[in-house]
Write a structure and sequence with these properties.
The chain has 13 helices and ten strands. By secondary structure, it is of the alpha/beta class. The chain has two domains: 45-283, no CATH class; 287-382, no CATH class. It has a ten-stranded mixed β-sheet with strand order 4-3-5-6-2-1-7-8-10-9, with helices on both faces. Helix 2 (47-56) packs across helix 7 and helix 3 packs parallel to helix 5. The model is unreliable at 1-40 and 183-187 (pLDDT under 50).
Amino acid sequence: MKIGEWIFWFFIVSGLAFVSCGSSNKSSSETNDSTKVEQEVKIPYDTVLTSIAHIIAGLEPLDDVQVNAITQTPDWQTHKAEIKSLFEKAEEKNLKLMRNWAIAELNEGRDISSTLFYAFSGPDFLYANTFYPGAKKYVLFGLEPVGRVPDFDTTKSHKVFFEATRRSLKSSLMLNFFITKDMSGDLRTSEYNGVTSVIMLYAAYTGHKIKDMSYVYVQNDGKLKNCSYDSLKRVSLSKGVRFNLIDSLGMEQEVVYFSFNAENDPFNASSVKKYFENLDGKIFGMLKAASYLMHYDGFARMREVFLSKVTTLLTDDTGLAYRDIRKSFPKIQLYGKFTQPIESFDYINLSDLRKGYDSSNVKPIDFTYGYGFGQKLIIGRK
């Protein structure tokens, strides 16, 4: 059963109670006195889901709900201390620097009417929100399983869940990207270790409350349909999870994650393709540590849909081939410095990007974005 906090304030200020229509001798100060009382409206949110998100994130819950009993266990106290250390290091190394850079270089990040289309993101809501904190909607996808909301029954041990959660975050927080093979193992430890719990964690850390969430699948017309978690497991169509969040400023934001294979044939046959094609409005794109997948023809259909929708792109060298970026985005700004791909991808040819770095006015960055030293950062604008 959903438990919500419903607090409404109704104060209507109409002006002075008595006004003399016949008076013509009012002073200037009297006629300009328009004392204003703001109407405060607090958006209701799900206190249980928000508390669970805080517990996963190692943060003290905001509300007094039954699930908070788990915070008294030694396993959670250990989780709280260790995850706090992880975030402190990530803030110092990258997150604070990224936020400052985004304010100076990425005005689109504060657009409150926009959609962020973050391809091959996995559950990476943290960095999506770091660079695009104003987005009205975030669209994420990956191969990682959707998973379900954890059940913090105090009669059971949750040590394995907390340990798997921290392992799955270590690469994301220390390296600024998830290591797919590690995350695949950790997020499949149980149904509670899927993407859902990681997005909840990041939502809590970034100061969001959870208004509501639902498991969804994409119908053939591209529209989302809510369903139960058990029903989701039986659906053959593209599946995912949707969160409606409230940020620290009281703005509502939607986060949708889809689990599917983005290679040409399965993507063409999927219902999520229609969902992407139906996206409208102002759409910005993000790519990071994307394994160079859209460099290949095997992901051409995904690449075409992505490029047809995105008006501003934030990416590293792994997202798109530089030749494709130049074809789609007339305005390009390079940041950081050129380095060869890491050893796992040393066969990737980046000669055109190297020429771009040699011949362009490149701006420095003081954080890492993507693999290795993470110093190849690109903004493309249409």
